[in-house]
Amino acid sequence: MKTETTTALPVSKYTKLLELGKLVTITGAAQLIIQLIGFVSAVIVIRLLPTQQYALYTLVNTMLGTMILLADGGISTGVMSQGGKVWQNRQKLGLVIATGLDLRRKFAVGSLLVAVPVLLYLLVHHGASWLMALLLTLALIPAFFSSLSSTLLEVAPKLTQDIAPLQKIQVHTNILRLILTSLTIFTFPWAYVAIFASGLPPVWANWQLRKKSATYADIDQSPDPVIRKDILTFVKRILPGAIYYCASGQITIWLISVFGSTTAVAQVGALGRLVMVLSVFNVLFSTLIAPRFARLPDSRNLLMGTYLKITFAMILALAVLLLFVWLFPAQILWALGPAYANLHTELFLNIAGSCLGLLAGSSFSLYTHRGWAIKPVILIPLSIAAIAVSAYFLDISTLQGILLLNICVAGFEAVMHMLFSVIMINKVSITN
């Protein structure tokens, strides 16, 4: 009996490790394919759109990200947190997701009312006619509305770790995006055509996700007032910070769009396409790591050990990436074409800021998935102070100055979120 007992535990750990390795391989391979297809689509757009049109394209996509964040307001994180408690019960998990979907539709109205006037102003400010600005705004509608439910429909497969179908849907979506972009932009090299073409495949993906989610959660239910109250309680704590991140997360684009030239906006947008490689880390994290962290029991030692391992692994991986960018800037910039070939320093600064932002976002994601949130009265003033101090010492009228500002702000936020994570884990009363 003693021999059987001593050999059973290692086998169990080996099985779990093998399962995790399989998921990482599937997700990583799929994401490499997805990012390669996405990068090809991005390069086609960068090379075929005139600089002024690509600047408008960059502004619209930046605002789309902001609109999605405003429409979410922490709802998806609240649903993941609540779903992590009932993920093995199809009925209860479906009720959580259905309630989240209802809330998101209501938040979407406010997002449109806030974001559309700002977008129209920025587009006209950078040379778009009112007709062009209107067409660009209408072109982002398909992608915006499909995003309202996509992240929530992924909650059930992520919690149950049924990852392969999610990756399959994403691969097919990006293939469709590449096909539509290629068929349209060669004939119609306008920003609104490229945006509309890239926004149609997510509509199909949304339909597929709804069918997959139904396997694990009955989402065809009426919203539950008790669950709505629980989610809104969390949203109220996180919403001010989410609104702030709408601005600070894209501070490079916002500042350069106000203080810089249209060419500088296009340059920032083109460099941003190269940051797509970080999406592999981001998707691996949000698909495999964050849901598992949300499911962990309230054990201080377990949570702290897991958090430190995750953070160290991310720092190591991002450091290797930065070294590669520092060694081969010319080869990387070649993909963007001759108009952007001289941005060696800007490339490194942009990737460095994005790496720090990803590190900050990972800690933020981990603790919010546990239902924790920094008080906005602490988060926002400190972050604004970091921006103000950095802007005082840097020349934000230049592209390099803007990118250095982004590094300072992202570095401050990374330290702040990591410290808060450690503090909250240490408050967990159970130690084993």
From TrEMBL:
<keyword id="KW-1133">Transmembrane helix</keyword>
<feature type="transmembrane region" description="Helical">
    <location>
        <begin position="310"/>
        <end position="335"/>
    </location>
</feature>
<keyword id="KW-0472">Membrane</keyword>
<feature type="transmembrane region" description="Helical">
    <location>
        <begin position="174"/>
        <end position="197"/>
    </location>
</feature>
<protein>
    <recommendedName>
        <fullName>O-antigen/teichoic acid export membrane protein</fullName>
    </recommendedName>
</protein>
<feature type="transmembrane region" description="Helical">
    <location>
        <begin position="242"/>
        <end position="259"/>
    </location>
</feature>
<feature type="transmembrane region" description="Helical">
    <location>
        <begin position="347"/>
        <end position="367"/>
    </location>
</feature>
<feature type="transmembrane region" description="Helical">
    <location>
        <begin position="54"/>
        <end position="75"/>
    </location>
</feature>
<feature type="transmembrane region" description="Helical">
    <location>
        <begin position="271"/>
        <end position="290"/>
    </location>
</feature>
<keyword id="KW-0812">Transmembrane</keyword>
<feature type="transmembrane region" description="Helical">
    <location>
        <begin position="401"/>
        <end position="425"/>
    </location>
</feature>
<feature type="transmembrane region" description="Helical">
    <location>
        <begin position="23"/>
        <end position="48"/>
    </location>
</feature>
<feature type="transmembrane region" description="Helical">
    <location>
        <begin position="107"/>
        <end position="124"/>
    </location>
</feature>
<dbReference type="InterPro" id="IPR050833">
    <property type="entry name" value="Poly_Biosynth_Transport"/>
</dbReference>
<feature type="transmembrane region" description="Helical">
    <location>
        <begin position="130"/>
        <end position="153"/>
    </location>
</feature>
<keyword id="KW-1003">Cell membrane</keyword>
<feature type="transmembrane region" description="Helical">
    <location>
        <begin position="373"/>
        <end position="394"/>
    </location>
</feature>
